[in-house]
Predict the structure.
Amino acid sequence: MDSQLSSTRELDEIEARIAELEAKARLLRAHATEGATFRQLLDDVDPQDDAKQRHARHVGRNLRRIREERELTQRQLAEILGHRSGQRISYWELGHKAPGPRNLERLACVLEVHWTDFYARHDDD
């Protein structure tokens, strides 16, 4: 009897989660057809996690991956960009804040990538 009650409760929880996901999917479809930005769609899916912070972490992971592929330290990259230490590079890579457009262009030039490479999705994301 207890196992049947437990199974019924689990089934109810699963059905509630499915209903919640279906509602989110309907909302995303509606926003996508209205021309919502990717950031707005992310906020709809996960309003608890700030879109700016997610964006900064994603760009930071890509910056680190690209920098390491070029076999540069944070300090070396910072010096090439004209900074005194690698602290700003570390700040960006940790996702505290994403580099602004001008710094993103400079990073892309120095690292010999297109600026959109900092936004690319990878298997480890």
